[in-house]
From TrEMBL, chains A, B:
Taxonomic classification: Eukaryota, Fungi, Dikarya, Ascomycota, Taphrinomycotina
GO (cellular component) term, any one: nucleus
GO molecular function: hydrolase activity; RNA 7-methylguanosine cap binding
Active site residues according to the UniProt entry: 236
Family as reported in the entry's similarity comment: Belongs to the HIT family.
GO biological process: deadenylation-dependent decapping of nuclear-transcribed mRNA
Name under which the protein is recorded: M7GpppN diphosphatase
């Protein structure tokens, strides 16, 4: 029996997560006594069907002030041609799935040297080794070879620049590359010292030049930054179009501009 | 004649802006030879109508892999009870409106001392005076008095803490306050010096305490930051829930963590 015919039997348990900016919501419920997670997200407006916007099915004008008007509308919707939402449905779902899709609270932590030594560094040690084999596979040309945009093979100054998986490879305004360094002694931003300034400058300039050559974007159209904490502990730099939409990955406290990192060590 | 009855006569000229993450699109068109701008944004899921999610009007299952399913759906829609979109309509619109609503390209600029002296500082001078009377109205208790959460009236150390207009005043996970300083010699982040460390620490601690007392959020649940460039040139600090959704205003290159600013001047 297909999930679509089971969906009407969904009995809501609770909302796991919601995001009013991105217009998404994640529901936990049960179908036939087994957990089901629905991740629902409204669709973007279809630029191939723009007339649907000015021809809504119904309009409720709720505010008028001179030339400014606000209205709520019902849009035409069709699961095949003009879907109003995209669902990801996990069924049957386990407790692990439920934990993964449950909203997490965020805390801001000022990381002192003591905190780094006593808590973060031991944690980083558990994240090395075979957990990041996929990074070494890229560096050793055992995976994603055809995706490499630029490589400097020098063991100290070298790095590989390749598209981030989140990028569609086409939309220039969302261009997103990743520079993964060849050297293995730098796990994160915390390992950078004054001696690495030349290395970072080199990586920055070569990356900017490679993106310019292939995609035509100027240096000033790119935002280069480092995540701390990163999702994996092998130094890598994010190279993204300055027009890219700002989200969690770009937030102050998570993303650190490469230029600032360099300026701090120089200054 | 009301805008809602004119809307069907809308003839599309071009798309001014679109945002696939936020599910919004801005169209320029004409109605009876006058420009009309439609800013359309899909609505967030209504948490009062959750059953509508599991009971869509139609479902198109397009992917099945073990427990994972993806589907496109047509949701029930009603301009009054379950609107699918919110429209802001500007009609008749002028060239100024069109420029305002047209997507702008962003550039990353490393601001040198020369650039600051020769370009930014002269610009800042044009942004002072009566342009920021609304800020002085707040500081002089001539406006928004009933919105003040905390005030230290000292002319040097003092500031006013009040809710940002973007906050609904209720949703704690989106809490957003603004601390506006009483002193008038600090226009932006660029004016901060080592001598201001105590002032910033004081502002930080008093703001955290005031938010804790009124809303129960701990210091670690708040993100304090300064915009550069800011939208107005009188020093103000953003105090936001660390759970708030990250957007343009939080992006690295625009938002500077207060703790980092303090650490830089100390270090």
């Amino acid at each position: 029996m297909h999930i679509d015919s089971l969906l009407p039997e969904f009995v809501l348990d609770r909302v796991l997560r919601e995001d009013s900016s991105y217009k998404s919501i994640t529901l936990l419920g049960k179908i036939k006594d087994q957990y089901c997670i629905i991740v629902a997200e409204k669709t973007a407006f279809d630029t191939n069907a723009l007339s649907a916007i000015s021809q809504p099915e119904a309009i409720n004008l709720d505010l008028e002030n001179n030339i400014y008007h606000r209205a709520f509308v019902a849009l035409k919707s069709d699961a095949f041609k003009l879907p109003s939402a995209k669902y990801s449905i996990i069924y049957p779902a386990t407790e692990v799935h439920i934990a993964k899709y449950t909203a997490q609270k965020k805390r801001m932590i000022a990381e002192t040297p003591e905190l780094y030594t006593n808590v973060v560094q031991p944690y980083i040690q558990t994240m090395l080794g075979s957990r990041i084999d996929w990074v070494f596979n890229i560096l050793k040309h055992e995976a994603e070879v055809d995706r490499i945009l630029f490589e400097d093979t020098d063991p100290v100054q070298g790095f590989i620049l390749l598209p981030d998986l989140k990028w569609d490879g086409k939309t220039l305004s969302a261009l997103y590359m990743c520079a993964i360094v060849h050297r293995r002694d730098l796990q994160s931003l915390r390992d950078l010292r004054g001696e690495h300034i030349g290395f970072l400058q080199h990586l920055k300039e070569e990356s900017q030049a490679a993106v310019k050559a292939k995609y035509g974007l100027e240096a000033s159209q790119l935002r280069l930054y480092i995540h701390y904490q990163p999702s994996y502990y092998h130094l890598h730099i994010h190279v993204q179009s300055s027009d890219a939409e700002a989200g969690e990955g770009l937030a102050a406290g998570k993303a650190w501009l490469l230029d600032d990192d360099i300026a701090l060590y120089i200054g």
